Amino acid sequence: MPDDKPAAKGQPPVWRAALFATCPECGAPGLFEGAARFRERCPSCGLEYSRYNVGDGPAAFLTLIVGALLIVLALLLDAAVRPPIWVHVILWVPLTIVAVIYGLRVGKAALLASEHQRQAAEGKLSDDGKP
To answer: Which pTM was predicted?
Structure first.
């Protein structure tokens, strides 16, 4: 789904912020502190990442997708050349780890950038009790 409105000046589009792990406000690199853990705030503009609730939704979804794709590839390789089991272990274990971690980084960064650009916030009730 394309962005409905263009990004504000200095803000990267969601896809660029996700692929390159840049701040959704200023575009500075350094969104993550660890493998898939956000920093507390942007080192350049000071945007607090903790106010966005990305959660663990991408983890389960991406793990299932990556797992399914790699199982298909492993079965195709096995049917084509019948390598020994150690080849499968050496090939697929590191590939799975790298694909899941990179997928988590991209997924979490995309959700954070999307929440920031759309100014998503926790739902609140008005005085009359309606959302």
So the answer is: 0.75
